[in-house]
Each structure stands twice: as structure tokens, then as C-alpha cells.
Amino acid sequence: MNRAESSHGEWQLHIDWTRCDGRGVCTELLPGVLGRDDWGFPLTRDHRDPVVGTDRIAAARDAVDLCPRLALRLDRTRRT
Q: Where in the chain does DSSP place strands (E)?
């Protein structure tokens, strides 16, 4: 995904729990989207992949790019 694509619409942040080791980089970059448990693992409000709006997409891209375990991915939300 290029930066121009990322500025339009909503995206869903997917966490690959098999890769995540709880370093907490994503929770520092997305405090309004992700919380953190006692061990540093990201938490979401409803235990689902959170939707990231255009106002947070730059921080979400940074979280994906900086994740040391490559455990994050952004997917375009599906319109129903």
C-alpha cells in the first residue's frame, strides 16, 4: 500500500498473535486504538481487529512498519 492509498477510507489493523511477543511498540504508537496488558501485548476493546480511521492511518502505518516481529498488517475494510 502506498501513502496515497492510505489516506482514504478506513483500514483494519490485523494482529498476528503467532508472531507478536508483546514489545508494545504498536500500543505506544496507537494509544487510542490499542491498549496494553501487563505483559505488553496489545489489547482491543472487543477482541477483534480494530478499525483505523483516516485520522490515525499514519500512526498505524508506522506501527506496521516498526513492529519488530512483523505481527501487524493493515487491510482495507470491506463495505457491506
A: 11-15, 35-36, 42-43, 51-52, 72-76
**DSSP single-letter state for residue 13:** E
E strand or H helix at 3: helix 3-6
Up-side HSE of residue 57: CA atoms within 13 Å toward CB?
Answer: 19
Nearest-angstrom CA–CA distance, 59 and 65: 10
Positions in the chain whose pLDDT score sits under 70? 1-8, 79-80
The Cα–Cα gap between 4 and 15 comes to 23
User: Which pLDDT belongs to residue 79?
Assistant: 61
